[in-house]
Specification:
Blueprint: H1 3-23, H2 31-47, E1 71-73, E2 83-84, H3 87-101, E3 108-114, E4 117-124, E5 127-133, E6 139-141, H4 144-148, E7 164-172, H5 175-187, H6 196-204, H7 209-213, E8 218-228, H8 236-245, E9 255-257, H9 260-272, E10 281-288, H10 291-297, E11 307-311, E12 316-328, E13 333-345, E14 348-354, H11 358-364, E15 371-375, E16 383-387, E17 412-413, E18 421-423, H12 430-441, H13 453-461, H14 476-479, H15 487-500, H16 505-512, H17 519-529, H18 532-537, H19 540-544, H20 551-562, H21 564-576, E19 597-601, H22 609-618, E20 622-624, E21 633-636, H23 643-650, E22 653-655, H24 657-666
Helix pairs in contact: 1-2, 12-13, 12-16, 16-17, 17-22
Bound molecules: 2-(butylsulfanyl)adenosine.
């Protein structure tokens, strides 16, 4: 075979493997083999530059485009879609179609509305001839060089190709690619990208195709613009199936249904699955599937009548960042947070959002007075994504961490090598003390109902308490007659305080707020030592002799019990009648789940998460947050998350709630009967 023929063969092979890899996600050959084909082709082209053709797979990234993007006029305008925001709107749309067609449409194509940027791709005799953005719908920008750099955009189509065709689709950035890109930004101390959509658009509309190529962009094709010399098909869905055969990426979530009820079910599913996909969606596009029916209902000047976009609630909105304030946590860590003009986003009204630390404020470059993008997706806590720079007023100043704590006026310091600044005031800082007391009274610790932040604030400002032990010496005349404190509420609070005197030692240990001692560690310590006094007498070595307690934790516990203010605190608890010893000390010999690592997903009937965790730990087992090869069993309740698939793929035992109970009673061997 001569070099020209071999080069042609290699081009076909590499195109084929690109299709398997990038479009079907199902490679046939190992990466090394693929690389060697590409290298052989590149070597031949090096030797004979005349063999290089523009759509050779080696030519994805050419030289940078010069000047502005050239305008590209669309032969068929790129319409936008009319929107509806609820199911009523969808039904009204179907009603209009039914009247216009004198009967309901035969079928609908339901598609996810992917949040990216619309592009038009023109193929001539199967070769990518031009790519352009939507622009104003009539004229966009010619971004051919960049589109060629996106692996998922075929340079040549496969099989029986049409004479000329334009297709439309959405270029997007997978969420995983976006997160990876932002991790790199953070490692470099650079500003994070705002969201996948803007990043995808920016990656296509910048001048260097090598940058586009590095961004792991993806595409779903969803429409034919024009077609010459192709098959005559009757429905939109047949067209999409045909485009898939040509090697274009068609979203497998597309679904043809035959009633508006089924459309609504699709919409509900799409909303539910919104955060389990690797790409962002902002709605559902519904199209009349029959092309004859599409023709019959036609278009308005702006949008087709045969398609509609159902919009999901936006997860990002802009609002004003009024100020940045700081909060001192119970450990003394200082956290800046944004005070926002209230904004309804992702289903809740957001008024504040954490900014984590000073470095984060600078990286994001958000300044008091900025208009900022606020995001709340699913159940994730709201975050300030970044400023809208085009709306920034002149002269807005960067925010810096105050030098002194606004609560206690002691210096704020940034310990060497750490991201989080700290208040140096200890518990003399009212900001920190308040958090400490609220933590002491919270669930998981002493669980004193009615003793939340509001009451803590009252007790502090009135000088009624100064440390957690003082809570147990409160009397009714301390509170009687104060604003909002009637006889009943006082009695309820004092009753709750009385009840809390009897909490297990583990709860008291959690409440003390010793560094590194959370619920799990506290339960291990309580099981082993049985009383505060025994633990206080233990040396660091004795503490770290136990499974699950590392030297750092042991050091922190031992140091805590040595400090004189803590010795005094414990004796105040004792005087106030707080129980410092467990009644029935867990039998350390009876640890039927020793060495067992359990992961819990979904909701259980008879246990809260905390209770299930405590039940495992009381038996010497461990509860982990994620499934790995080391996991002994996954407990799957109702609506399990992705952990279930992970466990199944790793061959980890999966227990239902009944199986979990057997485990707790009889240990892991109970499943092997
Ligand atoms: S169809 C005439 N299908 O949503 C049909 N659009 O406002 C035109 N989009 O500009 C569009 N996913 O950027 C269609 N499956 C999908 C889509 C989709 C996302 C975007 C597209 C368009 C906008 C419509």
């Amino acid at each position: 075979m001569d070099d020209a023929a071999r080069a042609a063969e290699l081009r076909d092979l590499v195109h084929h493997h690109n299709y398997r890899y990038h479009v079907l996600d199902d490679p046939e050959v190992a990466d090394a083999e693929y690389d060697s084909l590409v290298r052989e082709l590149a070597a031949l082209e090096d030797k004979h530059p005349e063999l290089i053709v523009p759509d050779s797979p080696t030519q994805r990234v050419g030289g940078p485009v010069s000047g502005l993007f050239a305008p590209a006029t669309h032969r068929v305008p790129m319409f936008s879609l009319d929107n509806v925001e609820n199911l009523d709107g969808l039904e009204a749309w179907e009603g209009r179609l039914t009247r216009s067609l004198a009967g309901a449409p035969r079928a609908f194509s339901c598609e996810l509305k992917v949040d990216g940027l619309a592009v038009s791709l023109t193929y001539e005799r199967g070769r990518l001839a031009r790519a352009s953005t939507r622009g104003d719908g009539t004229t966009g920008e010619d971004v051919t060089a960049n589109a060629r750099a996106i692996d998922q955009v075929p340079l040549v189509l496969r099989g029986d190709v049409p004479t000329a065709m334009e297709v439309r689709g959405e270029i997007y950035m997978p969420v995983s690619a976006f997160d990876a890109l932002n991790r790199i930004q953070a490692d470099r101390g650079e500003k994070p990208y705002v969201n996948p959509r803007n990043t995808a658009a920016g990656s296509v509309r910048q001048k260097n195709p090598a940058v586009t190529a590095s961004r792991r962009l993806a595409i779903w094709v969803y429409q034919i613009g024009f077609l010459e010399g192709g098959p005559e098909l009757d429905t939109h869905s047949e067209q999409m199936a045909w485009l898939a055969e040509l090697g274009l990426r068609i979203n497998p979530a597309n679904e043809v249904v035959d009633s508006i009820d089924a459309v609504e079910a699709y919409v509900r599913d799409a909303e539910r699955a919104r955060h389990s996909r690797d790409y962002e969606t902002d709605g559902v596009v519904v199209k009349v599937d029959s092309l004859a029916e599409q023709q019959a209902v036609g278009s308005t000047a702006k949008a087709p009548r045969w398609a509609i976009a159902y919009k999901m609630a936006p997860e990002e909105k802009t609002t004003k960042l009024q100020t940045i304030e700081i909060n001192v946590g119970r450990t003394g860590a200082v956290t800046p947070y944004a005070v926002l003009e209230p904004i309804f986003v992702g289903g809740v009204t957001v008024t504040t959002a954490t900014l984590h630390n000073e470095g984060e404020v600078h990286r994001k470059d958000v300044r008091p007075g900025d208009t900022v993008i606020v995001r709340r997706a699913g159940d994730v806590i709201p975050e300030v994504v970044g400023p809208v720079l085009s709306l920034r007023r002149k002269g807005l100043r960067r925010w810096n961490m105050p030098k002194r704590c606004p609560f206690c006026n002691n210096p704020i310091v940034l310990p060497e090598g750490e991201a989080k600044a700290r208040c140096t005031g200890g518990y003399s800082c009212q900001g920190r003390l308040r958090e400490h007391l609220a933590h002491f009274a919270a669930r998981g610790a002493m669980d004193i109902e009615g003793l939340g932040y509001k009451t803590v604030d009252l007790l502090l400002t009135e000088g009624l308490i100064a440390d957690p032990a003082d809570i147990f010496t409160l009397r009714s005349d301390d509170l009687d007659g104060r604003d909002g404190w009637g006889e009943t509420s006082v009695a309820n609070l004092l009753g709750a305080i009385e009840a809390a005197k009897n909490r297990p030692v583990a709860n008291l240990l959690v409440g003390l707020g010793i560094d590194h001692v959370g619920g799990s560690v506290a339960r291990v310590l309580a099981r082993r030592f049985g009383s505060i006094d025994a633990l206080a007498r233990a040396t660091e070595d004795q503490i770290s002799e136990m499974g699950g307690i590392g030297p750092e934790i042991a050091g922190s516990v031992a140091a805590w019990f040595v400090a004189s203010e803590n010795v005094e605190l414990i004796s105040k608890f004792r005087e106030a009648g707080v129980r410092l010893e467990d009644e029935t000390r867990g039998d350390p010999g009876n640890e039927i789940l020793a060495g067992v690592s359990i992961v819990i997903t979904g909701t259980l009937d008879a246990f809260s998460r905390d209770e299930a965790k405590a039940a495992v730990e009381d038996r010497g087992g461990r509860v982990a947050g994620s499934v790995s090869a080391k996991t002994t069993a996954l407990v799957a309740g109702v609506s399990p998350g992705s952990k279930l698939a992970k466990a199944e793929s790793l061959g980890v035992d999966v227990l239902d709630e009944a199986g979990f109970r057997r485990h707790l009673e009889r240990g892991p061997s109970s499943e092997q009967t």
